[in-house]
Design a protein that fits this description.
The chain is built from seven helices and 24 strands. With 389 residues, the protein is of the alpha+beta class. The chain has three domains: 99 residues, conserved putative lor/sdh protein from methanococcus maripaludis s2 fold, CATH 2.40.420.20; 86 residues, Elongation Factor Tu (Ef-tu), domain 3; 139 residues, OB fold (Dihydrolipoamide Acetyltransferase, E2P) (Beta Barrel). A six-stranded antiparallel barrel has the order 4-13-16-15-14-17. Strands 1-21-20-19 form a four-stranded antiparallel sheet, covered by helices on one side. It has a four-stranded antiparallel sheet with strand order 3-18-23-22, with no helix packed on it. A hairpin with a 2-residue loop joins strand 19 and strand 20. It is elongated.
């Protein structure tokens, strides 16, 4: 009861103060309130609440506009194997052009070092065999024409009732035989270079490239099948590596190689793997690869390559090398989140074939920024600079 009486006295005193002081009553009322005034929000605390440390907030539209690709973390890893190899012309980049029929060389139209296109004439040849083939084709065509006319005539007479149906059918069979003979004769003439009635013909290049060798001269006789010139396309080259036998099971078509040659380092892609393809049954594996880019070593150059083979370190997490960025002296990858990306510290291992092993920091289920990940690094640094101010 004493406490209640005291509270009433205080209340009455407060009311009296309000009446006496008028306008100053509000200040007294606030200062005497039991509620503490709310503290002003700290600006730095607000910023940290909006954007956690190490996070870059981006929408899907912003990610797409920046050209940032998001890829899944892969497992498998691999061991690096160094290979020695050479640059060779592809199989279809070399042609030893031969004469399809024997004859006398009338003109040589090219010289070593000259560029030619596919179908361009290399030499002019005068061939008796070619003339005979042309005559055979012309005779077969004439026989087919005569058989066609005879069949048409018999059809007309059969409609008038002059000849029997059997005559029409016999002439039709003769026409079919004559046309077949004419087609075969034309094909033989075309294969020989389509000589004219005098037996003159041209030996042409089957590919585009550079003439590397000419083996005939005007007035010389060329036997059937003899090589008259050689043509090579220098732009059609490939890399050939000799590898240990076990590599046949560890290298796949499409695998990446990092190649070093006379003109520096470049990337290549495996296009073929052949086991037991080494010289003299050595059991070596032959690996063929296609270089990426246009500035390539010439054929005959020596190169060395590094390839990541499969199945040697099993289960190691790998990410594209461009996904690994350095932030404040530490390696990080940017893991995709619903709001954007979070910089995640990792321990990076070996690099090969455009891939980097991650020894610690990821569990393999993440999706990370790959292409243009450096833009996230720059955005993160920009955010840290604004916090410092």
């Amino acid at each position: 009861m004493q406490t209640l009486t005291s509270n009433k006295k205080l209340l009455i005193a407060g009311v009296a103060a309000v009446v006496l002081l008028g306008g100053g009553a509000m200040a007294l009322k606030l200062s005497s309130s039991n509620e503490a005034p709310a503290a002003a929000p700290d600006a730095e605390t607000t910023e940290q609440a909006e954007t956690p440390e190490g996070v870059v907030e981006l929408t899907n539209e912003q990610i797409k506009a920046a050209g940032i690709s998001v890829v899944s973390v892969s497992r498998g890893g691999g061991g690096e194997t160094r290979l020695s190899g050479r640059v060779e012309a592809m199989v279809d980049a070399r042609a030893a052009v031969g004469a399809t029929v024997g004859g006398t060389v009338e003109r040589v139209l090219v010289a070593p070092g000259q560029s030619v296109r596919a179908g361009q004439a290399l030499i002019n040849l005068l061939s008796g065999d070619g003339a005979a083939l042309r005559a055979e084709a012309d005779a077969a065509a004439a026989s087919a024409t005569a058989a066609r006319q005879a069949h048409q005539r018999n059809q007309n007479l059969a409609q008038q009732g002059v000849v029997a149906r059997q005559e029409v059918e016999a002439s039709q069979a003769q026409l079919a035989s004559a046309e077949a003979m004419a087609r075969a004769a034309r094909a033989r003439s075309a294969a020989a270079g389509s000589p004219n009635a005098s037996g003159r013909m041209s030996v042409v290049s089957p590919i585009s490239g550079v003439v590397t060798n000419v083996q005939v001269g005007p007035g010389g006789f060329v036997a059937q099948g003899a090589v008259v010139a050689e043509v090579t396309n220098p732009a059609r080259v490939e890399l050939v590596f000799n590898a240990p036998p076990h590599m046949a099971a560890n290298v796949r078509i499409g695998s990446s190689l990092r190649v070093t040659g006379q003109q520096g380092e470049f990337e290549a892609v495996v296009t073929g793997v052949a086991a037991d393809a080494g010289p003299q049954d050595s059991g070596a594996t032959l690996i063929r690869a296609r270089p990426q880019g246009s500035d390539l070593p010439p054929a005959g150059s020596s190169v060395s390559g590094i390839i990541v083979t499969e199945g040697q370190t099993g289960g190691v997490i790998t990410v594209p090398t461009e996904a690994v960025q350095t932030v404040n002296g530490a390696s990080v990858v940017f893991v995709s989140t619903p709001q954007g990306f979070k910089a995640t510290p990792v321990l990076a291992g070996r690099q090969a074939g455009g891939e980097t092993e991650i020894l610690r920091g990821l569990d393999g289920a993440e999706r990370i920024a790959s292409t243009n990940a450096f833009l996230l690094k720059a955005e993160l640094a920009k955010g840290e600079a604004s916090h410092a101010h």
